[in-house]
Write a structure and sequence with these properties.
three-stranded antiparallel beta sheet, 3 strands, globular
C-alpha cells in the first residue's frame, strides 16, 4: 500500500475518498470537498517550492508553466492511479455507471482530497507530506513536463497578460451551473481587471478554466492581438 494511504485516522481517509454522489445515496456520510480545497492549496505550494529548488536558474514564467503541468487534472489523475486511489473512491451508483473510476476529474479531485486529509492526519506537519509528493513529481519525465508546460492555455494567456499589462494577473471565476452530483458542469470566466476575456464550460473546475483561457486566446487572435 502506498504511504499516502497509510492513515492513523481511518475515518479521515474514508471521508477523503467519499464523493458527493455517494453521500447523496448514503445520508450521514461526509463528502471530501473541503479536503479537496485544502489538498489543492498544498499541492500548489509544494510543487512551487519543489520547482524553485530543483531548477535554481529557471525563470518565473517557466516555473509557472511547469507547476501547472505538475498539478493539472490529467497529471493528478495519473498520480491517483499510481497510488491506488481509483477503485478505492466511494462513488454513487450513477457515477460508477458513468465510468467514474476512470474519470480524470474524479480521480484528480480524490487525489487532492487525500493529500489534504493526509496533512491533517499528520497533525498538519507539511514535512510528512512533502517527500511523498516530491517522489511523485520526480516520476514525471522531464521531456513530458517540458512538452505539457508549453501548451497549457492558462500559461499562454497569463504570459500575454503580463506582457501587455505588467504585473497584472488574470482572475478566474468558476461556478457550478448544472449537471448531476457525479457529473457537474462548471462555467469559468477569465477576467483581467474589469474586462471579461473568455468563458469555458466543462465537467471539472480546472478544465473549465483552461477552456476559458483557450476562449480568451481565440478572441485575442480574432482581434489580431496575438
Amino acid at each position: 500500500m502506498n504511504q499516502l494511504l497509510n492513515f492513523h485516522n481511518e475515518k479521515l481517509l474514508r471521508q477523503a475518498l467519499t464523493h458527493r454522489s455517494f453521500v447523496n445515496e448514503n445520508p450521514g456520510e461526509k463528502h471530501n470537498e473541503r479536503l479537496e480545497f485544502l489538498g489543492d492549496a498544498l499541492l500548489t505550494f509544494i510543487s512551487g517550492e519543489y520547482l524553485y529548488t530543483r531548477y535554481p536558474d529557471m525563470a518565473e514564467d517557466q516555473m509557472t508553466r511547469r507547476r501547472s503541468a505538475l498539478v493539472d487534472e490529467k497529471q493528478l489523475a495519473k498520480f491517483a492511479i499510481e497510488v491506488g486511489l481509483d477503485f478505492k473512491m466511494r462513488l454513487g451508483r450513477g457515477a460508477i455507471q458513468d465510468g467514474g473510476f476512470q474519470s480524470p476529474n474524479l480521480l484528480s479531485s480524490a487525489f487532492e482530497s487525500v493529500v489534504g486529509a493526509y496533512y491533517l492526519d499528520c497533525d498538519r506537519n507539511i514535512e510528512k507530506i512533502r517527500p511523498i509528493l516530491e517522489d511523485l513529481f520526480n516520476s514525471v519525465p522531464e521531456a513530458i513536463m517540458e512538452i505539457r508546460s508549453t501548451v497549457d492555455s492558462k500559461n499562454r494567456f497569463q504570459e500575454w497578460v503580463q506582457a501587455k499589462f505588467g504585473s497584472v494577473l488574470p482572475k478566474y471565476h468558476t461556478e457550478r451551473i448544472g449537471g448531476e452530483d457525479h457529473a457537474p458542469e462548471y462555467l469559468a470566466q477569465v477576467w483581467v481587471g474589469n474586462q471579461l476575456y473568455g468563458e469555458g464550460k466543462a465537467r471539472g473546475k480546472k478544465e473549465a478554466e483552461k477552456r476559458s483561457a483557450e476562449n480568451a486566446l481565440s478572441n485575442l487572435k480574432k482581434q489580431g492581438l496575438i
